[in-house]
Specification:
The complex is a heterodimer.
Chain A: E1 6-8, H1 13-21, E2 25-28, H2 34-39, E3 48-51, E4 61-64, E5 67-71, H3 76-81, H4 83-88, H5 90-97, H6 102-107, H7 110-115, H8 124-129, E6 133-138, E7 141-146, E8 151-153, E9 156-157, E10 164-171, E11 177-184, E12 195-204, E13 207-216, E14 223-224, H9 226-232, E15 235-236, H10 239-252, H11 263-281
Parallel strand pairs in A: 1-3, 2-3
Antiparallel strand pairs in A: 4-5, 5-10, 6-7, 6-10, 8-9, 11-12, 12-13, 13-14, 13-15
Helix pairs in contact in A: 9-10, 10-11
Chain B: E1 4-11, E2 14-21, H1 26-33, E3 52-55, E4 58-61, E5 74-76, H2 89-96, H3 106-119, H4 125-131, H5 142-154
Parallel strand pairs in B: 1-5
Antiparallel strand pairs in B: 1-2, 3-4, 3-5
Classes of the chains: A alpha+beta, B alpha+beta.
């Protein structure tokens, strides 16, 4: 039996922040994770349920100078079809194409996928690669947190009870930037990744620089892999470099064995997908 | 007991007002409060698409949508697909192709096909398979379902 005492559907960030300041609340956006987690008893509702779907200022993708803001209520489907994403952050569209099913992409929000803080969260991995920052608003003020400092464990992050994640900011990648995303599961649709990889960098005259590498489902949170980045930075993207980077990537992670995959298989997937993406961008 | 929420929305062209528990799903509200039993619950986890409805021109799994979130929206369910002139072309194609076995997945398949064809009126076989990847037919009658959607696209 649920214990929701109040239901609120604010239409502005200000009103939502005020509601969060008033006491413990559960925030719902698309609902695709929350409905499952409350239904299974994995999560219980706070006394107040705040539906943020009517806050239109948190929806959509905009570009201001060199910064792209993806509103927290932007759906995964929006990422698939948006012109700014296609031009500047195409790896997010690649990710969206591998995300769940059409029905789930239409409902799921980017903010929800981040706040759910799954170690396997699909959208998080390419956003780590793009060095995204999350924008957190409370009635007392706004702060930005780099996404690679946001997660503290499975389902856990540094977000405070009185804060609302209103969007993510991503700097437009430099000229010549190329990247990719790979995810593996038993079927293309509706899978929680056994492992996922995103790699990006500036590729000029066959040499890769400004390298960013991120992995999903191989640690308690999605992670950047500094070791793999170092193994690639400034190197010519030839067979030797790519193979060595795959080896470093695979040995840099320490995944668990669970119902979805064993630790060695996850390490194998990390190697294969890292090499595949590097071959694609080389 | 959960707090009640008064909502008003349009379903199949008619404005409806209901009071729903804050934690109720849109699927339970449609079936139990509005007696629209077309959308089905099968997995209850967004994995099978049997509960697919169209909300503001996007297909969603109604089992994962909060009923309270229907407020102010425009919803179409399988009951709204048939017109006074008869079956929708997608429904007719399912009949013509024999694409219905036990029928439990059919309302969700038709709604998802409707959404897909609205976005992409000339789908390839691959587009049809991708478009329906969130819908499970436990009779495994996919071949005829794909053929029905292709026929609907041609008609």
């Amino acid at each position: 039996m649920s214990n929701i005492e109040n239901y609120l559907a604010p239409s502005s960030i200000e009103d939502a922040a005020a509601a969060l300041a008033a006491g413990p609340a559960t925030i719902v956006a698309g609902g695709t994770d929350l409905m499952l987690q409350t239904g299974s008893g994995q999560k219980t509702y706070a006394p107040t349920l705040i539906n943020i779907q009517k806050i239109t200022e948190m929806r959509g993708i905009s570009k201001d100078g060199d910064t792209i803001r993806i509103g927290a209520l932007t759906t995964i489907t929006d990422l698939l079809t948006d012109a700014i994403i296609a031009e500047h952050l195409p790896v997010l569209a690649t990710m969206a194409d591998k995300f769940a099913s059409d029905q789930i992409r239409n409902a799921s929000s980017i903010g929800g996928n981040i706040c759910n803080a799954s170690p396997a969260g699909d959208s998080i991995v390419p956003m780590l690669m793009y060095k995204a920052e999350v924008v957190l608003v409370a009635s007392t003020g706004t702060r930005k947190v780099p996404l690679n400092e946001f997660f503290t464990g499975p389902g856990k992050s540094v977000i405070q009870e009185n804060e609302l994640l209103i969007g993510v900011d991503i700097a437009v990648p430099p000229a010549g930037f190329k990247g990719g995303f790979g995810k593996f599961g038993p079927r293309p649709a509706l899978e929680i990744a056994m492992a996922s990889v995103s790699v990006g960098g500036v590729v000029k005259d066959g040499v890769i620089s400004d390298v960013r590498v991120a992995f999903g489902a191989v640690a308690p949170t999605p992670i950047r892999s500094a070791e793999t980045e170092v193994a690639l930075e400034g190197k010519k993207l030839d067979e030797e470099t790519i193979s060595a980077a795959g080896e470093v990537a695979s040995s840099s992670v320490n995944p668990i064995t669970d119902v979805r995959a064993s630790d060695w298989y996850r390490r194998h997937l990390i190697r294969v997908m890292t090499e595949e993406i590097l071959n694609d961008v080389s | 007991m959960s707090a009640k929420v008064d909502i008003e929305f349009t379903v199949n062209g008619a404005v409806r007002q209901v009071s729903v528990p804050a934690d109720m799903s849109a699927l339970d509200m449609l079936r139990d409060q509005l007696d629209l039993k077309g959308a089905k619950e099968a997995c209850g986890e967004g994995e099978c698409g049997a509960c697919t409805i169209i909300v503001d021109d996007a297909s969603v799994c109604s089992c994962l949508m909060y009923a309270a979130d229907c407020d102010g929206r425009t919803i179409e369910t399988i009951e709204g697909v048939q017109t006074v002139d008869g079956l929708d072309p997608i429904q007719q194609a399912f009949v013509d192709q024999g694409a219905v076995q036990c029928g439990y997945c059919t309302p969700g398949m038709v709604m998802q096909a409707k959404h897909m064809l609205a976005k992409n009126p000339n789908p390839t076989e691959g587009d049809i398979q991708r478009g329906l990847e969130g819908n499970v037919c436990r009779c495994t009658g996919y071949r005829k379902i794909f053929d029905a959607v292709a026929e609907a696209a041609r008609s």
